[in-house]
Amino acid sequence: MSSAAVDTRKYQLFIDGQWVDSESGKTFKTPNPATGETLAEIAEADKADIDKAVAAARRAFEGKWSRMSARDRGRLIYKLSQLIEQHSAELAAVETADNGKPIKESLYVDLPQVVENFEYFAGWATKIEGETIPVPGKMFNYTLREPIGVCGQIIPWNFPLLMAAWKLAPALAAGNTIVLKPAEQTPVGAMELAKLIQEAGFPEGVVNIVPGYGETAGAALAAHPGIDKIAFTGSTEVGKLIAKSAAENLTKVSLELGGKAPNIVFADSDLEQAVAGAMMGIFYNQGQVCCAGSRLFVEESVKDEFLGKLSEKAGKIAVGDPMNKSTQMGPQVSEEQLNRIKGYVDIAREEGATVLTGGQSPNLEGAFQKGYFFTPTIFAEVKNSMRVAQEEIFGPVVSVISFKDEDDLIKQANDTIYGLSAGIWTRDITRAHRFAKEIKAGVVWINTYNMFNAASPFGGYKQSGYGREMGKHALEMYTQVKSVWVDLSGRPIGWFK
Ligand code: NAP
Ligand code: MG
Question: What is the C-alpha to C-alpha distance for residues 10 and 171, in angstroms, rounded to an integer?
Fold first, then answer.
């Protein structure tokens, strides 16, 4: 199937278990970024629809969902994971058509991880427990770990289904209800997921999916006094807006934001392994990854050899039709993102960096001429203070910075407002662990990159956000603790007897 062959799809909003038009009757279109053609037309949620969805989520939370046993909740989530697995091929095709990521990635990385996340958190539903606290005196003190309530969730376009899974799975396992707003660029996967949520048999209103624009639907959700928590993944800029509006109602917040990760190559590393790791770090998903290794630090003594190998391999990456199984890079998600990346190529040149490879759109044939493609790009001679080393570009663009010794390296690696992830390539085990301790980042990869598992926490230091997704840590974001005191003495207390 070629990218251009997908028919225009139509979707309504999914509120209270029903498919409904938006109150305004408005719709919006999402393109296939490989061709620029319309992929789907979707009902556009606005404040009035968010109000309806929040009310439905509240009713579900106070009603059936809170009375359901943890076992039954877990079984529903598990059933959803199985349905997703059964529909993996269709969902992967939809994901690639909407986002542009190579089908090889949608099918063999995104979808399996979506399934894994629902499966993993299905198991947690029955394992969320309180504690007994050894307090002094004739007192019994225990804790209850309870759901937070109605959760607003706003997700980005880079891993549309996977981001939905990271948000929905732990929130559901903990017993919350949800209003999810997908990104305007990539709403289709979430709407297909809604069909499976319906099929799995979740009670009405437990999950509501309301696509729309960030400034309207997203802002209305974040500011809504009827939600108990807002979870957001996206840019640091919008994350700050979310935190500000949540502060109005003291809504609980978790934020998964941008990054400018250092990926560090020492001279003693296995250079073949490091070159492949550098490429996975920046070219995977067209570089649209919050933990992308976009600052590539290379030890001076191996810089020329390393860059020779890297640029040779980067030049050979197959860029084109994302539906083709041999394609390694598809288009960027939107024209806006493509233009943003091009703008940074100009900035790099103005700042005195050199463009070693790439730096422009490729020449593609037929329908793909209108797609938002960009070639793998390497900026050499970059200084860590330059804008291309400090600002998140979110494209297949890497800034190479050389370093002489470890002290100088750590200082530069930490010299960023972000702190999401970091990579290091070395055979020196002491140095690797020293680095892992000294780097200010939520995730560190040693001689590997972009490794994820539903059981392993992910999240940022500094302006990369707060809270941890996945693993048992994610449950902390979706539960609250109640402390209960019980008298065991049977006697009046205190001095007011
Ligand atoms: P974004 O603007 O932060 O969008 C993320 C989500 O927030 C989308 O659902 C968006 O809706 C929504 N949103 C936008 N403005 C909002 C507002 N005022 N109130 C509430 N919600 C709002 O990110 P983007 O523009 O799609 O991507 C650009 C940058 O985001 C990238 O360069 C990168 O820095 C960052 N990003 C980070 C991640 C990550 O995983 N950490 C993922 C994707 C992007 P709309 O889609 O309608 O705008
Ligand atoms: Mg799209």
Answer: 28
Residue 418 CA: which ligand is closest? 1
Q: From the CB of 235, is ligand 1 less than 6 Å away?
A: yes
Tell me the one-letter amino acid at 323.
Answer: M
**Tokens 């020196």 sit at which residue?**
428
- Ligand nearest the Cα of residue 157 is 1
pLDDT tens readout for residues 71-113: 999 999 999 999 999 999 999 999 999 999 999 999 999 999 9
> Nearest ligand to the C-alpha of residue 162?
1
| Ligand 2 center from residue 87 Cα (angstroms) | 20
Q: Tell me the residues surrounding ligand 2 (ion) with CB < 5 Å.
A: 30, 98, 185
Ligand 1 atom with the shortest distance to the CA of 155: 9
Q: Give yes or no for residue 184 CB within 6 A of ligand 1.
A: yes
Q: Using CA of residue 234, residue 240, residue 241, residue 243, what is the dihedral sign?
A: positive
**Confidence (pTM):** 0.97
What residues contact residue 326 under an 8 Å CB cut-off, 6+ apart?
318
Q: What is the identity of the amino acid at 302?
A: V
- Identify the DSSP state of 71: H
1 pLDDT more than 50: no
Quote the tokens at residue 6: 């997908």
Return the H-helix or E-strand segment holding 284: none
Q: Which two tokens stand for residue 94?
A: 């939809």
Dist. CA 206–CA 176, nearest whole Å: 8
Q: Tell me, what's the pLDDT at 280?
A: 98
How does pLDDT run across 450-488, given as a tens digit for each residue? 999 999 999 999 999 999 999 999 999 999 999 999 999
- Residue whose structure tokens are 């044939």: 365
Q: Is the CB–ligand 1 distance for residue 344 below 6 Å?
A: no
Per-residue confidence (pLDDT) for residue 497, from 0 to 100: 74
pLDDT score recorded for residue 212: 98
Interval 140-145 mean pLDDT: 98
Alpha-carbon span 24 to 84, nearest angstrom: 32
Q: Is the pLDDT of residue 224 over 90?
A: yes
Cβ pair 348, 327 in contact under 8 A: no
Instruction: Establish whether residue 305 lines the binding site of ligand 1, counting it when its CB lies within 6 angstroms of any ligand atom.
Output: no
The answer to whether 256 is a known catalytic residue is: yes
Q: Is the CB of 246 under 6 A from ligand 1?
A: no
Kindly report the protein residue whose alpha carbon is nearest to atom 16 of ligand 1: 214
Is 290 considered catalytic here?
Answer: yes
